[in-house]
# Entry
Amino acid sequence: MTIDEALGIVKQTELCWIVFSAETGNVLSVDGVLSDETMANKFEHLGNLSGFGQPVMTRRFKSSSVTREILEKHQTEAEQRKIRVHVLTEWSMATTEQLARILEHGQYDAPMQRDFDSKIIVDNLWELHRDELTPVLRERLEKLLTSDVLCFAAQTKLCIYLTALNGDEQKLKAIWIGAEPGRNCWDDAVALMDALAYVRTTDQEIIGDMLKIFDTDFPFGGKLSTMIALGKIGPAAGSRVADKIRSTVYDSHPALVAVRDRVLERLESEEGEWLVCGDCCYGQVRNQTGFGAKPCPKCLGIGWRSINE
Ligand SMILES: [Zn+2]
# Structure
């Protein structure tokens, strides 16, 4: 439907539902809202949105507020989303050298931008390429920490990752406990836990801090990241770790239960019974159905597999 056709129908209503194509932002349908619309009508309308044969977005408008600009904005935003997904997918398939060059260059064509997109590249380097970050490459990346080509969040994470790759457990601990800057948000804390797992910390003060997360009402995703980091460290983390996980992480979604049980299995066995997974980069693989990284289906994100498997 053209914008003119859509506006023509909108004009005849007071309130309306407009269905947009999620991919193009084009208007697919306009329906006037019944003046005595009930909740059941609303759900019925939302339930009928599967007949378009494509992903859609639906919005309810006061008809007098619907202008040509608003409808065009949906098309522009959809176009930008498409470009973003395309570029993010390219980045997740890019080589280490290509990613490093984008960071060094520091120029992003709209809709991509330095703020937060440079953080995505830094995360890609760590999650998918960390073993390829040679001393020469690390030196190049180190220089970016004091330049303005990275956003603050990217600088913070890159510092954590480079510290881990340098094996500097003491500095990671200083950041973790707040003696040095670099832990500003939960995202940083997750990066620190993964970095501490990478250096295989057995520092009981840090592990004690991580275990406290299981006693909070933190969203489950946070506890999952903590559990995976402890699973990566393995039995050397100490026997209290398995006890804490068993007593606080209850049966829920099958995928989460599978991770918990795998982590417990690793924590309660001998280190010698485990091998590097071999199918992933420390538990992460490229997301084939989207972009970025996701947990390895073989080791469930832990990066280790049992020799008995
Ligand atoms: Zn794996």
